[in-house]
User: Which sequence fits this backbone?
């Protein structure tokens, strides 16, 4: 009974949880801003300048584009994934387990479901902020086609929800904080490498291409590239559907595993 | 007179099972408006499980539980908006300052910004922390942290305050600071439900006590009545009692406990024979004292260690 799904327990009050996290975030906003500001510069220097002399140009959807233009959208997608996933794993775990913040919240009119929704929406918000800063940087470098590129912002919220929800499920399941290494090794790192991020998935053998196209980051990278290049295809619609379905399916799972973990 | 006051909490045959273990085993109790009710019991007696059900943190296995006349199962959100809870752990938000801890909590209760500020400052004054308003909570002492937890529980002007071991781990000064504030709140008519295993705390703060063990209620009553019924008025403790004392006590059928190196004999005020023990068998290895709640507690729950 205690592990049942209580989706109706979600109220607008989840915004209060979001607000609490925003308050803490704003305290160290400079640090929070610096990472997405300089990280793309590091990557673009290493890969764009260093590697592109080896690689030259890349074939993408029948077009030849520079390697820097190829990886810039991937960096945006990776930022969405990292910001929300890490927020809803390590940071949420610390609040839940070490700081007992959720326990305290549950003495107020907030439900556990409000808290989890607030945490996930917060993770997605962090993804939007980081992606926005990064978008400004890569846009400034002329790697984004505007105004289509602005679609990256709503996309980062969607991507943030998807990976944050995934992270929250692990938070509900891991026995200790060190155990997050496992999902990172099994899911996050392979996605970081094989989702058409640093090389087109067409370079992979057929079976691996199929596997890759099942990964959420592959779709997020594709969407980012679509928006950055300003060229929509029929795949765009399917990739968005994929991300939305992922959120719709995983969100109730996150609620159930967290309820099972915290309510006894 | 107790019966005329409205009931703030009404629990009937409340049960909480964890798998096959029965943490709360069918207890019924009530708390009247303006009353302070204490739940006493050794570790694992079911105190915390009970109050967690009262504030809707942990769902009950069976039974009926109403707070302010509302069913906790369906009206938990309304109930929680009218109560204040100090949990056992000091779960202040370490990422926030003293003032922000109150401010953020007020938002959870949907209290308006302006009102929050006034109320938070007033509460900081009440707990004597108005000068530490902008400090991080990690810089506070144990006693201050506990007082801030209390202030946070009062941010919504609750009608019922629930305290889970409010002074555990505090030094005597900090405990008395805490008690004074709780007494002030009580004088203002706040209803309080508290758990503790400090007998002095229970007898000082609570009008009525429930002693629990193994998920059941053992006894219930006013502190003084419980002492009189279960431990008498006076107690003589005889250290290393000789055979003569033991025989005397047995012959006169005194209420007593025999420990390894100590005999504890309970007597009534008017008991003249009881005085004889003091005169006849006690030279320097005796302590004569008033009966306390601790005697009642140990007599009812036993002296074995609970771990």
Assistant:
């Amino acid at each position: 009974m205690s592990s049942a799904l209580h989706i109706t327990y979600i109220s607008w009050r989840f915004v209060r949880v979001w607000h609490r996290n925003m308050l803490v975030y704003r305290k160290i906003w400079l640090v929070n801003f610096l990472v997405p500001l300089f990280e793309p510069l590091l990557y673009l220097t290493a890969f764009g300048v260093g590697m592109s002399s080896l690689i030259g140009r890349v074939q993408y959807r029948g077009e030849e584009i520079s390697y820097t233009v190829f990886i810039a959208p991937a960096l945006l997608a990776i930022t969405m994934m990292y910001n929300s996933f890490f927020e809803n794993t390590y940071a949420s775990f610390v609040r839940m387990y070490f700081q007992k913040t959720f326990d305290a919240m549950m003495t107020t009119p907030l439900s556990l479901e409000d808290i989890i929704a607030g945490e996930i929406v917060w993770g997605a918000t962090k993804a939007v902020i980081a992606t926005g800063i990064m978008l400004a940087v890569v846009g400034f470098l002329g790697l984004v086609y505007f105004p289509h590129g602005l679609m990256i912002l709503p996309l980062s919220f969607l991507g943030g929800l998807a990976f944050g929800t995934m992270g929250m499920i692990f938070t509900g399941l891991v026995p200790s904080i060190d155990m997050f290494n496992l999902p990172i090794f099994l899911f996050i790192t392979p996605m970081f490498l094989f989702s058409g991020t640093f090389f087109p998935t067409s370079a992979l053998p057929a079976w691996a291409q199929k596997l890759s196209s099942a990964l959420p980051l592959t779709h997020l990278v594709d969407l980012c590239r679509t928006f950055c290049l300003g060229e929509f295809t029929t795949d765009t619609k399917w990739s968005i559907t994929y991300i939305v379905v992922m959120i719709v399916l995983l969100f109730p799972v996150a609620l159930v595993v967290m309820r099972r973990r915290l309510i006894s | 007179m107790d019966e005329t006051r409205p009931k703030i909490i009404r629990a009937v045959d409340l049960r909480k099972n964890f798998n096959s273990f029965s943490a709360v085993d069918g207890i019924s109790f009530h708390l009247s408006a303006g009353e302070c009710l204490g739940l006493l019991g050794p570790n694992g007696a079911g105190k915390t499980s009970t109050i967690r059900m009262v504030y809707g943190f942990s769902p009950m296995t069976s039974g009926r539980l109403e707070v302010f006349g509302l069913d906790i199962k369906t009206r938990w959100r309304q109930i929680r908006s009218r109560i204040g809870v100090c949990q056992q752990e000091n779960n202040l938000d370490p990422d926030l300052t003293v003032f922000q801890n109150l401010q953020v909590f007020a938002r959870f209760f949907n209290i308006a910004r302006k009102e929050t500020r006034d109320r938070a400052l007033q509460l900081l004054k009440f707990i004597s922390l108005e000068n530490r308003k902008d400090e991080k909570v990690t810089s506070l002492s144990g006693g201050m942290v506990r007082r801030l937890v209390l202030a946070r529980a009062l941010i919504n002007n609750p009608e019922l305050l629930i305290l889970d071991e409010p002074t555990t781990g505090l030094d005597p000064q900090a405990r008395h600071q805490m008690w004074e504030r709780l007494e002030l709140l009580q004088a203002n008519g706040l209803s309080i439900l508290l758990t503790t295993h400090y007998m002095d705390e229970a007898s000082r703060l609570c009008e009525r006590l429930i002693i629990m063990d193994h998920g059941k209620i053992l006894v219930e009553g006013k502190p003084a009545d419980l002492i009189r019924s279960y431990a008498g008025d006076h107690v003589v403790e005889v250290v290393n009692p000789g055979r003569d004392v033991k025989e005397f006590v047995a012959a006169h059928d005194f209420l007593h406990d025999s420990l390894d190196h100590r005999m504890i004999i309970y007597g009534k005020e008017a008991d003249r024979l009881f005085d004889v023990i003091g005169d006849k068998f006690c030279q320097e290895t005796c302590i004569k004292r008033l009966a306390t709640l601790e005697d009642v507690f140990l007599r009812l729950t036993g002296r074995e260690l609970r771990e």
Q: What stands out?
A: Chain A has one domain: 7-262. The mean pLDDT of chain A is 93.
